Amino acid sequence: MASSFKSPADTAKACVGVAALKEKAPLSNLIVLSFLAGAYIAFGGLLAEVATGGMAAAGWPTGLVKLVFGGVFPVGLMLVVIAGSELFTGNCMYMPMGILQGEASVMGTIKNWVGSWVFNLVGALFVAYVLAYLTGILTAEPWAATAVTIAKTKALGGAQFIAAGKTVTSLSWMQVFWRAIGCNWLVCLAVYLAVASDDVIGKIFGIWFPIMAFVCIGFEHVVANMFFIPVGIFIGGVTWSQFFINNMIPATLGNIVGGAIFVGCIYWFTYLRGTNKAKA
């Protein structure tokens, strides 16, 4: 009976194959698929805010609110992986593995990372402005207060603000960076598990647990924040400069470290080191 999943070594080989395809992909595909990935992750963020809006104010325990938020958010990565699209954070794992195995180039990686980051932002902004703000879904209470609080927590750079009658301290630049490392370590493990599975149900379970974990823990995902913080900007309370300086920069750098080093490089070193020489 054939197995429905790949071994860790075969999964690493499959990830290199994905990197090789991304290296050769035309720019038009990269643009369109990156837009979709940003929108898909934003769908997960929108669902999470709708599902938990007002729960904290109603007295729900903080841990339970986080669990509900994390429990519904993974739909975004399920769409990314199963339907197919270009997500910057997943590419932080794929492309370094391709470089190390000789199947991708540094310039190809730069093109992939820059293109996916920029058009992930475009897709996330589209959902944030058109589907969350213009529709009024997140502008009415209690969802507006939840959306603004999340945005301020992520983008005010360590400043304090009042939320639900309490003083809250936002994340500092370094806190965002460290949390972003943990985030993309788990996100890329979710992608790795999805690649390992050869059936859709296996991919769903492989994605759900690590993504639920990173969201519930409170780690920082740069593409998710491309939705969460602009919603707060559109409603009011956060500025574009705070968005980019206090969150986008440290979250991007941390996500690169988490995905490239802790997943991509480690699994290449463990399972594929030396095999490219044998192939040559």
From TrEMBL:
It is a multi-pass membrane protein. The keyword Transferase does not apply. One of its GO terms (molecular function) is high-affinity secondary active nitrite transmembrane transporter activity. It comes from the Archaea. One of its GO terms (biological process) is nitrite transport. It is found in: Cell membrane. The chain crosses the membrane at residues 30-48, 68-88, 117-137, 176-195, 226-245, 251-272. InterPro entries: Aquaporin-like (IPR023271), For/NO2_transpt (IPR000292), For/NO2_transpt_CS (IPR024002). Keywords: Cell membrane, Membrane, Transmembrane, Transmembrane helix, Transport. Belongs to the FNT transporter (TC 1.A.16) family. This is Probable formate transporter. It comes from Methanobacterium formicicum. The gene is fdhC.
